[in-house]
Amino acid sequence: MAIRLPEYGQIAYDRVADAYDDLWSRHVVGPNARLTRGLALRHGERVADLACGTGLYTLEMARLVTPGEVVGVDYSEGMLATARERAEQEGLSLSLVHARAEEFIAKAPARSLDAVSLRFALAYLDWRDVLPRIGRTLRPGGRAGVLTSLTSSIPQLAELYRRFRKSPEPAWKLFQHTHRSLGETWRLYRKLRESYGEPRFITVPDDVAQVAARLGQGGLATRETWTETIRLWFDSGDEVVAWMVDSGYVTHDSLEHVEPVTMRFLKRLFAEGMESFRQPRGIPLDLVVGGVIAGRD
Ligand SMILES: C[S@@+](CC[C@H](N)C(=O)[O-])C[C@H]1O[C@@H](n2cnc3c(N)ncnc32)[C@H](O)[C@@H]1O
Questions:
Q1: Do the domain assignments include residue 29?
Q2: pLDDT recorded at residue 70
Q3: What is the predicted pLDDT for the residue at 61?
Q4: 10 C-alpha vs ligand 1 centroid, how far in Å?
Q5: What's the gap in Å between 59 CA and the centre of ligand 1?
Q6: What is the pLDDT averaged over residues 10-36?
Q7: Nearest CA to ligand 1 atom 23
Q8: Which of 20, 122, 180, 251 has the fewest CB atoms within 10 Å, counting from its CB?
Q9: pLDDT of residue 6
């Protein structure tokens, strides 16, 4: 189940691996704990954690099923290396598989797993296709748990998209930033607007009902759903943008072909825009997270 050519997202997560837990995982301890509780894992069970990342929550599940097995699947070698190291340090056994989650789930034998967990990876795979396939892999009584950002997550970012779309300001700033001719700037600006003018390139679900419905297509009945908002605070717009990039939050294949000079421009533009949300405590960012637990009878 080897990975073919490295993809943009894979390379991006290789880079993110070292800082990931500090920048992301610690903010989502609550929803992860709730998902793990909802999975009601038992000793001796076999679990797959799709897109397991650095393995923080994979290992929590490994503790609960020991002497069972947790298989962590991820396409980033960097993230898997961190998971491997963490498992060794904690003296816990994890089976780690370098593969695309889609391929792993498509090839897993029917009824071979007691639980499947998929946390914060729906932006990177075709979830409308993958979620219905999970049911087939579960034994009777098996459970699936999905945790995801929703499209309403970070409304501050969506608000900036809307604002920039209506205003001539970004085109003018791009002209000043790139020192290119007016014609070339306009072409670049139009290309950027086509790709990022609406946050439609973000493909996460709108709500937990969409996740539950897709799991349902695979024969799984919804047991629990919830949505929660987690507010993060930053000291500056620059910090917000650095966090969005370094935590992996804005990882997306479409960014692969953005030239460095344009990327610097986008970072500047959004960092300045974020300042407009400043409150006495700093700049807020609201993560909107949805969780779903479903099961096979
Ligand atoms: C935001 S992180 C989530 C990691 C972990 N599940 C967590 O919640 O801490 C996304 C992870 O998905 C992995 N990933 C993205 N697309 C994938 C795919 N198609 N197959 C396997 N792993 C994937 C990335 O390498 C990264 O480790």
A1: yes
A2: 98
A3: 98
A4: 9
A5: 15
A6: 92
A7: 51
A8: 180
A9: 61
β-pair partners for 145: 117, 293
| Cβ atoms 240, 234 nearer than 8 A | yes
User: Which residue out of 28, 74, 243 has the highest number of ligand 1 atoms within 8 Å of its CB and is therefore the one to mutate?
Assistant: 74
**Number of domains making up the chain:** 2
Residues lining ligand 1, Cβ inside 6 A: 9, 13, 25, 51-53, 56-57, 73-76, 79, 100-102, 119-121, 124-125, 248
Of residues 197 and 133, more confidently modeled = 133
Does the residue 54 lie in any domain? yes
DSSP structure string for 51-77 = T-TTSHHHHHHHHHHTTSEEEEEES-H
Q: Which CATH number fits the domain that encloses residue 113?
A: 3.40.50.150
Q: How far apart are CA 38 and CA 54, in angstroms?
A: 21
Q: Running DSSP on this structure, what letter comes out for residue 297?
A: -
Main-chain phi, psi angles of 146, to 5 degrees: -125, 130
Evaluate whether 291 touches 31 at the Cβ level (below 8 Å). Answer: yes
- Whether 130 maps to a domain, the answer reads yes
Whether 2 shows a pLDDT value over 60: the answer reads no
75 shares its domain with 213: yes
Q: What are phi and psi of 113, to 5 degrees?
A: -130, 150
Q: Which residues pair with 148 in a beta bridge?
A: 290
Instruction: Kindly report the average pLDDT of the chain as a whole number.
Output: 91
Please give the residue range of the domain that contains residue 119: 8-150+204-230+287-295
- Whether 3 is covered by a domain: the verdict is no
215 and 88 share a domain? yes
DSSP E strand boundaries for the chain: 46-50, 69-74, 95-98, 113-119, 138-149, 221-234, 283-295
Q: How many residues comprise the chain?
A: 297
Question: pLDDT by residue (tens digit) across 134-175?
Answer: 999 999 999 999 999 999 999 999 898 888 877 778 877 877
Residue 175 tokens read as: 């002209």
